[in-house]
Write a structure and sequence with these properties.
Layout (H helix, E strand, L loop, with lengths): L1 E6 L6 E4 L5 H29 L5 E2 L5 E4 L2 E4 H4 L5 E6 L15 H8 L4 H5 L3 E7 L3 H11 L5 E4 L3 H4 L7 E8 L2 E9 L9 H5 L40 H18 L1
Parallel strand pairs: 6-7, 7-8
Antiparallel strand pairs: 1-2, 3-10, 4-5, 4-8, 6-9, 9-10
Length: 259
């Protein structure tokens, strides 16, 4: 181990760093670790595939929320899409920071939320829910620059779905007028949430790309082709020909390197 010439943050102590090596030695060390990283990635893909095969739970109770335009149902939160992720954020009387701020952990998570248009392009809606009144929620969103739809819980939704005492993401699927609960991720699992991929990986349909191990009949399209600028998605539009060429070349290069 090497001793850093710079003092640490506390008491001027020195930080012991890893060995300082040549570019060749660094590359060799990185390649060695990359083997383990790829194993973890494949294990994560396998876990997501197993998640897509989990049994569903029918939601029989009619839940009601307050939104910016008044009362809405759980079905309304889907905004017409098939998949819904509801994050229970703690913003209400009694929570540290109230009324100017939501829970610090929930706020850190909200700051990480990717542009929602990419999720929407995969038939998925993300919504936040708290017990604070709408006027406070709207004030908070404006202050913090958050864009996700955010509803007020008015009944036992949080208790019924295991998020009355701690934050968590509940995942739902809509089949016509019927709603099913498909997954719950909470505690440290919430730390990884925020990217388009982390959200899609917890949904019953997944990323909906042909490389995924999904049950027969699940919607799937080629990877990369559906990607777009967030201001350029058009429902039902064919992939841009130029982007198809670029993504095909990139995918071929990745596969060649992996091989």
């Amino acid at each position: 181990m090497q001793t850093s010439p710079e003092g640490g943050r506390k008491g001027g102590s020195h930080m012991k760093t890893p060995a300082i090596v040549s570019p060749e030695e660094w590359t060799a060390a990185r390649e060695q670790l990359l083997v383990k990283e790829k194993a973890v990635m494949r294990a994560r893909d396998a876990l997501a595939a197993e998640r897509r095969r989990m049994p569903w739970m029918a939601v029989e109770k009619a839940y009601e929320f307050e939104g910016p335009k008044g009362k809405v149902s759980l079905l309304d939160l889907f905004e017409g899409r098939r998949q819904l992720i509801v994050y229970r954020a703690f913003f209400e009387s009694g929570v540290f920071g109230w009324p100017e701020h939501a829970c610090r952990g929930c706020s850190l998570g909200a700051d990480q939320v990717a542009h929602l248009t990419h999720l929407n392009a995969r038939d998925t809606t993300l919504a936040y829910a708290s017990r604070a009144p709408q006027k406070d929620i709207e004030h908070l969103k404006a202050r913090m620059g958050w864009k996700m739809p955010w509803y007020t819980i008015t009944d036992s939704f949080d208790k019924d779905f295991g998020v009355d005492e701690w934050h968590g993401h509940n995942v739902f699927f809509r089949d016509g007028e019927r709603v099913f609960r498909t997954y719950l991720i909470n505690s440290r699992g919430d730390e990884a949430m925020g990217t388009t991929w982390s959200y899609l990986d917890v949904t019953p349909l997944g990323r909906q790309e042909i490389w995924e191990d999904s049950p027969e009949g699940y919607p799937q399209t080629p990877p990369y082709k559906w990607w777009n600028w967030h201001d350029n998605y058009e429902a039902g539009a064919a992939p841009d020909r130029k982007w198809v060429e670029v993504s095909d070349a990139g995918e071929a290069a990745f596969r060649k390197k992996d091989a």
